[in-house]
Amino acid sequence: MKLHSPSVFQFLGRHVLFLRICIDKKENNPNCYIRDRWVLANGNWGGCWSWRIQPRGRSASEHDTLLSIINGLSLVSEESDGWKCWNSWVPRKVNVFNWRALNDRTPHISNLDKRGIDIHSLLCPICETEVEDINHIMFNCPKVKAVWSKCYDWWGIPTPEISSAINIGSSNIMVQEGNKDVAKIFHGVCLVTLWAVWSWRNRVVHALNECKQKIRNEDIFSQIQILSFLWISNRCKLIGFNWSIWVNNPKAVAGAIT
Ligand SMILES: [Zn+2]
Fold this sequence. Notes:
By secondary structure, the chain is mostly helical. The protein folds into 2 domains: 6-71, no CATH class; 92-254, no CATH class. Helix content is 53%, strand content 3%. It has 13 helices and 2 strands. It has helices at residues 6-16, 18-23, 34-37, 57-71, 92-102, 109-114, 134-140, 142-155, 165-170, 180-206, 209-216, 221-236, 243-248, and strands at residues 38-41, 44-47. The protein has a two-stranded antiparallel ribbon. Helix 5 (92-102) crosses helix 10 (180-206) and helix 7 (134-140) crosses helix 8. The longest helix has 27 residues, at 180-206. The two termini are 36 Å apart.
């Protein structure tokens, strides 16, 4: 078990959250990694922090998120270090968003309301009928459900009852295909779908009132096909990855025609 392999910890420490805490000059050593501060003591892993100033406010919140992320790490003996939910075939921003969603750290309306921010309406910006929380906006909103349904149909996989971010986080229901490349590609598509739904939702929120309905009525499924093709084909380097196969039989790109 390579707990101190720098790959995951450097990524976590340098690029996701810790850097911002360091920039705020809260950490005594601005060049330290998480691996320098996450230590094994008396058989338990835990933080051994060295704050010059105790993080407060936003830094404290980022610190909490960091702890959630570290606690979500799945390290498996005799395998390279990795994040169970991390998918190297989609961009970092998509993975980071997945983690934010998994830890309910996205600024959806219920979270803003919990922080005491005055919100005009608690209703979902897309369907305008139910309160927006993470599971609603990512899965249960009727318009979002329709998007998921199209993605599953495209892949020829029966649409499961997805009702929580944990399902995506654990990725178990997403990765039931026999071929591990197919499973990883499909998992990547699911992460891109989450990211695309959140982008869609944000475009509605930030649009002028007279433009909101037009954006709500958009069908983002084709964007998901295009983005996932561009991102995954660029990274996974599998032979036979072309657009026509991608839209007609995506499993075939990994040589697993079913
Ligand atoms: Zn909704």
